[in-house]
Design goal:
73% helix, mainly alpha, single chain, elongated
Length: 418
């Protein structure tokens, strides 16, 4: 018998465990193709561990071409053999749609199987499914039950979500103080979202005594770890001097970090700093850049700010038509300043044909939201009979409303008509 045939005959007589061991030896020698071959042979003999490691090789593309479908296939085979890591892994595949179509119900099934075997991440994931209503009917009581189990298994995220449950009264009686206890435990273990949330609790005095200095401490922990919302909030603390010495330059630094991470609120605030020269040298071009970036990301107030830049020609060539486009987008999102500016555009014919009736309609919308400039403008329409019948008494009513909002022009008009 030829030597090759003898070797092949011997290999067929090897047990699954022996083939698995040969696969591991090949892997350690960086003979990845050999490892894959033996893992496949062991897998065909229902060796669960071989199936799991083969799945991991397909995920990483080691010794084989990367193939998420095959990885999911082998994870599921091992899961059916009650391999707990495989059960959690195939659950993740179904949850995230990795190698298989996304299917929350199947994900829940496998998370539940792994949870029965005490898998720490599976129980946390099962809790999350109940919390979000993914693959199961949303049930906060069940979510709390599993989060509590996960917390005993050192799940930091479980601690955070228990804080959320107690703070908002989801599945348990609302208890802000208990929520803070869980947020603190999670934050102390490095959870940046918990640290940022803890900063909020101290900032607003929810579950703890209001303490801006303590809020700054936790915002800084989360911000320095890269949490964009904590960076935004810490920037605001420096900007206004809440819990820390006012430092507008430091505020700009954190607004910039947060903005570069994609936080549209910080993009807008950074634009504001450049526009007014707060903490940085005034630069209309840079202001316009950040306002526009925020606006295109869906920040509604920034849409109004972009409109203002076009209206005044600050940082961009003056263009009333473009200004109106942005004012309309902002006004449709209930930004009162944009409504007021549209009233102004129609009143004076900036970028549109002059139209007192249309102007009055926009001023009225802004006035309904308490905009002092719009209230004053409506008063002037009644005083001079623009778009409405002239009525001094009605004008005074609107001027008084505007004056109550602090509008100095309205106060002067009242004195003139008195």
């Amino acid at each position: 018998m030829a030597k090759k045939e003898v070797l092949e005959n011997n290999e067929t007589q090897l047990t699954a465990v022996e083939k698995y061991q040969l696969a591991k030896e090949c892997f350690e020698k960086e003979d990845y193709e050999g490892a894959v071959s033996y893992y496949e042979q062991a897998a065909r003999m229902d060796h669960a561990e071989a199936e799991v490691e083969l799945a991991q090789l397909y995920l990483a593309g080691i010794g084989v071409e990367k193939d998420e479908k095959k990885a999911a296939y082998y994870f599921e085979l091992a899961a059916m053999l009650e391999h707990v890591e495989a059960q959690n892994s195939i659950a993740d595949c179904f949850y995230f749609g990795q190698g298989v179509p996304r299917n929350y119900r199947k994900a829940v099934y496998w998370y539940r199987q792994a949870t029965k075997q005490g898998h720490p991440y599976a129980v946390e994931s099962l809790a999350n499914c109940y919390y979000r209503g993914e693959g199961v009917v949303q049930n906060f009581e069940e979510a709390v039950k599993y989060f509590e189990v996960a917390a005993t298994k050192e799940s930091v995220w479980a601690l955070y979500y228990l804080g959320e449950c107690y703070f908002y009264g989801k599945g348990v009686e609302k208890d802000a103080e208990k929520a803070v206890e869980y947020y603190t435990k999670a934050a102390e273990q490095g959870n940046t979202l918990a640290a940022s949330t803890l900063g909020d609790r101290y900032s607003y005095g929810e579950g703890v005594k209001k303490d801006f200095a303590e809020a700054v401490k936790w915002y800084a922990v989360a911000a320095d770890a890269g949490n964009e919302w904590a960076q935004n909030k810490l920037a605001n603390c420096y900007y206004y001097g809440d819990g820390v010495e006012q430092d507008e330059a430091k505020a700009v630094e954190y607004f910039a970090k947060s903005a570069e991470a994609g936080n549209k609120n910080s993009m807008s605030r950074l634009g504001e700093c450049y526009y007014y020269g707060r903490g940085v040298e005034q630069n209309y071009e840079e202001a316009f850049k950040w306002y526009q970036t925020a606006a295109e990301a869906g920040h509604n107030i920034s849409k109004y700010s972009v409109g203002n830049c076009y209206f005044a020609g600050n940082g961009v060539e003056q263009n009333y038509e473009e200004a109106i486009k942005w004012f309309i987008e902002a006004a449709e999102q209930n930004i009162e300043g944009a409504m007021n500016k549209l009233g102004e555009c129609y009143q004076y014919g900036y970028g549109v044909e002059q139209n007192y009736e249309e102007s009055l309609a926009w001023y009225q919308k802004a006035a309904d939201k308490g905009n002092g400039w719009a209230l004053d403008a409506i008063g002037s329409f009644y005083e001079y009979g623009k778009g409405v019948e002239r009525n001094i008494e009605e004008a005074l009513v609107w001027y008084k409303k505007a004056a109550d909002k602090g509008n100095k022009h309205a106060k002067t008009r009242i004195q003139r008509l008195a």
